[in-house]
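Quick question, first post here. What does this chain look like in 3D?
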Amino acid sequence: MKKGIMWIGMALTAITVSAQQVVEWRGVNRTGTYNDSGLLKSWAAEGPTLLWSLDGIGEGYSQLGIAGDKIYVTGMKGTNHMGYVSMIDMNGKLLQQKPYSQEWVGNYSGARAAVTLNDGKLYQYSGHGVLTCMDATSLNVIWQKNILKEFGADELEYGMNEAPLIIGDKLIITPGGKTHNVVALNKQNGAQIWTSKAKGESSAYCSPIYISDMEVPIVATITEHSIIGLNADNGQLLWSYPFPSRWTEQCNSPIYENGMLYCMTGNGYGSVMLKLENGGRSISKAWDSKELTNVFSAMVKVGHYIYGCNESRNWVCLDWNTGTLMHKTRSRQSVPVAADGMIYNYCDNGEVQLIQPHNAKMEIVSRFRVTKGTEQHWAHPVVHKGVLYIRHGDSLMAYKVK
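> Answer (accepted):
Ran it through. Tokens below.
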């Protein structure tokens, strides 16, 4: 299961790029949900229409991101293992491709977390812990720093893998040092704003989320053995919850909605729902479950239910409010996202499934197989303006689903 860590934050994110419409890491508030509507409820037998495909983006697993009418994705190319950002137009034409730093080689080589898009800039975190700020139009480097060296942290076994989170002028990243565990940097120049010891645990491949509807603004993430909530203004540790990990692998970003925070981990440890209390300053456990447990496959909420694939290759549905097991059926290892009430499930054998939830049960209404691309089928899908984007290693495909 350790290979699963590659699924984590394999993320190309976008939070706000001026007034442009952007695609975030796993969609709305990093939940795996996209806001598209009017999408097809079934596909032709051969699958949805392939609008275009593009080879040559480089090896990797990172999800693409979109700002306005430009697509951004990272990949590793050449014998020097350099990481590149590709900028692509909506018709699949490669507009620019420029390097940021060397990428990870060994233990599933290639680009991991790609870029966060914000106010005309790109922020890229490499597998070696180098954080790079680039101009989103020219792709020229504005500033760069080695986060691990600066904050006294070690590389992870499978390379660093986290989508930086931007809140206002702050860029949040998790070096995983014993003293400087989570840090906030000035997004303009990389200068330190605050640093938090948190629990002093190793970073664990989790991309943090922002909780903005509490009295205290919160950065929530998962480190080696803990779910943590930090005050986004100053880095103060507000609360933590024990969350074991056998291999330092906490790859799934939490899902938050209306005061409830859902977290999932693997190696049989399962998942937990936390209730935020006292304006976000404390937590209590609402429920936990061993049914939905996975290191890397992520999960998605549709209606009152959580859906995902567990480590025993079962497709599982839990009740969001109670954790009750609603449905379980055989499946493949996969990663789901949702849009317009449907689930788009990308399996590790290259099959893409369109799933209709029916009161907690699931019906696969259509499917097709991705035949282009290289290496593992691990990148998270994106649904944007009626198009389903699938990244498979060196190739990017766009399918018409509206």
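The longest strand covers residues 94-102.
The helical segments are 147-151.
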